[in-house]
Amino acid sequence: MLGGxxxxxxxxxxxxxxxxxxxxxxxxxRLIPSARPPxxxxxxxxxxxxxxxxxxxxGEGSGLQVDDCELRRERPSYTVDTxxxxxxxxxxxxxxxxxxxxxxxxxxxxxxRWDELLRLAHIVVLQRPDYDLDVxxxxxxxxxxxxxxxxARLAQASHGYILCLSQTPLAISATHIRGLIxxxxxxxxxxxxxxxxYIETEGLYRP
Length: 207
Ligand code: ATP
Known about the structure:
- This protein is α/β, with parallel strands linked by helices.
- The protein has a single domain, classed as 3-Layer(aba) Sandwich (Rossmann fold), CATH 3.40.50.
- It contains 9 helices and 6 strands.
- The strands form 2 sheets. Strands 1-2-3 form a 3-stranded parallel sheet. Strands 4-5-6 form a 3-stranded parallel sheet.
- The protein is globular, with a radius of gyration of 17 Å.
């Protein structure tokens, strides 16, 4: 799973998702938009608009799935709950991977029940060339104990390892895209044309 606010979804998410899926030979990779991000300010587009954009982006041929499980939930969208429901759906033997960028990984200790995540899934960390963050001490210990270099090691277990992956580095963020639109500049070629058309039709992110 690759969760996020996707406000809006962009090529940084999509290219990473395709590369992770291929490098780890995953059966499927689900993009999971979060409903009410517990530790972030409210997103600019509504939940249904963000879902619509992710569905447009992951259209035919991308090899990516969209899962709206967090949007159908009444409670705040905690990743640990999502992993528990995926685990229940897929069974205890399936290898489950939680994919997230380096910035999100560095913020992990603020997540709800974060110390349970590795009991449910592996963690795959993507590089983010637009973020220069130091990893918190508690995560250094976790990395020392749990990180592996060989993707094949992850496939041998259903959960419990951390892999830092080198994918094509794309310094694209939703914040930057929202800023461009708010200032009247074009974000074209940072995100799929279908998503940009939708943003324009819906009048999203304008000041
Ligand atoms: P914002 O700028 O609004 O914070 P974002 O661009 O970081 O948004 P999110 O929806 O918050 O996008 O990201 C979802 C996940 O995708 C996070 O784990 C994030 O680290 C990761 N991610 C986002 N952009 C990239 C990128 N360019 N390269 C690699 N990972 C990314």
